[in-house]
Amino acid sequence: MNNIIMDVIQNAMSPYYLHAGENPSMVLVSPQINGHNYHSWSRTMKYVLVSKNKFKFLDGDIMVP
Questions:
Q1: Which range marks the domain in which residue 57 is found?
Q2: How many domains is the chain built from?
Q3: The pTM is what?
């Protein structure tokens, strides 16, 4: 990989950065969403994604390649 891509991947402030402790099976919000808790679940999920610098993937700030 070229140096620019490596800099983006290794920069903790980059939305593409993945911490070694993050993985796809990790539970971000508990309890799971159901028909009665959508508002609190979505607020908590947004908070988690913003804190991990990943919300930009959902709000359209980062365009699909």
A1: 26-65
A2: 1
A3: 0.72
